[in-house]
Fold this sequence. Notes:
Blueprint: E1 2-6, H1 11-22, E2 26-31, H2 34-42, E3 46-49, H3 55-63, E4 67-70, H4 79-96, E5 102-107, H5 135-141, E6 148-154, E7 157-159, H6 166-177, E8 180-183, E9 189-194, H7 195-208, E10 213-217, E11 220-224, H8 225-236, E12 240-243, H9 245-252, H10 254-259, H11 268-274, H12 283-287
Parallel strand pairs: 1-2, 1-4, 2-3, 4-5, 5-6, 6-10, 7-9, 8-12
Antiparallel strand pairs: 9-11
Helix pairs in contact: 1-7, 3-4, 6-8
Domain NAD-dependent epimerase/dehydratase: 3-208
Region (Disordered): 108-137
Protein name: SDR family oxidoreductase
Amino acid sequence: MRVFVTGASGWIGSASVDELLADGHQIVGLARSDASAASLAAKGVEVLRGDLDDLEVLRTGAAGADAVIHLANKHTFDAAANNAERIAVQTIGDELAGSGRRLLIAGGMNPVPGRASTEADRSPHHGPDSPRGGAENLALSYQDKGVHPIVVRFAPTVHGAGDHGLIRMLVTGARAAGFSAYVGDGANRWPAVHRSDAARLVALGINKAPAGAILHAVAEEGVPTHAIAEAIADGLNLPATSVTPEDAITHLGWLGGFFAMDLLTSSTATQTLLGWTPTGPTLLEDLKTNSYFHK
């Protein structure tokens, strides 16, 4: 297939592109910068210059593709980012309407009190003012408009050497504060997946997932946050310290509130549906290496 990929040079996207190329697909990658364009071109990817605000570029990429994988995100977690995500998904979905072509988008985890969340739990987020602009439900609604939508919900910790996401931010916060924080007793849990496993799931999803599928890119259902904080403390030779929810936000900003959440998540249905078996290192194994602790 000819696959248009937004976020093609990003943390998950670049690894996913490698998997897709290995599967024999022709890739068109959205590139915002000269460096991103060069890295994609070096892999043999056709480059389309632009970003999420270039709606005509998104239409062009979608119009010329057999399938679209939307992984780009502004990652500012504010109203502007939510709005941009919603408009991007709507623009791509409208272009694909009536074609039966595949649209795979990235989603996030949603906690379910008292148990692990599953693929059967629908996102509570609807409308442009909700997290990610309600893009997951918006994308799934395009099944009624002749599109083949697929959602991949990624664990908050897609980890590995070179990670510059939330775990890297926790490391940076610990280094600045002089201690590694967890909230309360740190019994709340974060799901995790290695980057290589997440990329393999993206490739499997675009190849095999049925219309309307919700997939969970989760290898570990929930790593206790006190264990994450202690591993970071060991890597930096600092103490691990319990803080209140209020102090966590003072210490880490919005990430402090997120780190206090219990996000236990299952991927049993995903593994059964696609034959996906995570094989990469665990989060704590990665945190025993030195890759997270270089300045």
